[in-house]
């Protein structure tokens, strides 16, 4: 049991409004927490004093009553957002994970400038510096992905072509049987990485 919860239950315990299971949990916490035990004793003394005033001194001055009420420890109020987080730990953890992943991915997006070429039949591809060329008369049997480079298609790609953070040129002789997708924005790149990671896990 946390100290904030224990303090909130002390008043109900002194008023005999606390269920048995919560009474037991509160007593167990008081045995292990000296700060809460001290606060409980102060509340108990205040409660006894108020009981004595109500039964033996009904004509006590208003000023004295006000001073006693002001001296009572105030129950700490939790912020609404903190209560929401405690009630939805799974959603909070997922949101934190997504934010961390987003920040990390954006930083990698800024740092990742190396040319990456993925696909089958890569021996049919010509790479000149940061330019990936599928020459006329050559055929790529499957998907082709080019990252951080220029892509020039003169031949055929029998699959999907994905160009990430780069440029694409298709000659009149080019033929791409699948989808052509350009990824130029950080959010698109992050989504591509996530779906690609899930695809890799599914096929393993």
From TrEMBL:
Residue ranges constituting the Putative zinc-finger domain according to the UniProt record: 3-37
Membrane recorded as keyword: yes
Gene3D superfamilies: Anti-sigma factor, zinc-finger domain
Transmembrane segments: 90-109
Key words of the record: Membrane, Transmembrane, Transmembrane helix
Alphabetized Pfam families for the sequence: zf-HC2
Keyword Ribosomal protein: no
Family: Belongs to the zinc-associated anti-sigma factor (ZAS) superfamily. Anti-sigma-W factor family.
UniProt protein name: Anti-sigma-W factor RsiW
Organism: Paenibacillus chibensis
């Amino acid at each position: 049991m946390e100290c904030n919860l224990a303090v909130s239950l002390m008043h109900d315990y002194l008023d005999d409004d606390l269920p048995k299971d919560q009474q037991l949990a509160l007593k167990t916490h008081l045995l292990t927490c000296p700060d809460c035990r001290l606060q409980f004793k102060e509340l108990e003394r205040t409660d006894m004093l108020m009981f004595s005033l109500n039964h033996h001194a009904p004509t006590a001055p208003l000023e004295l009553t006000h001073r006693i009420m002001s001296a009572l420890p105030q129950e700490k109020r939790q912020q609404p957002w903190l209560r929401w987080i405690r009630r939805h730990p799974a959603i909070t953890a997922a949101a934190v994970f997504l934010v961390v992943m987003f920040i990390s991915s954006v930083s990698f997006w800024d740092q990742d400038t190396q040319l990456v070429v993925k696909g089958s039949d890569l021996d049919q591809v010509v790479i000149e510096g940061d330019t990936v060329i599928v020459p006329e008369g050559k055929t790529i049997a499957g998907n082709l992905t080019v990252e951080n480079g220029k892509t020039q298609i003169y031949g055929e790609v029998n699959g999907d072509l994905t160009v990430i953070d780069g440029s694409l040129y298709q000659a009149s002789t080019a033929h791409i049987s699948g989808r052509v997708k350009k990824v130029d924005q950080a959010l698109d790149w992050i989504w591509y990485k996530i779906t690609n990671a899930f695809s890799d896990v599914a096929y393993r």
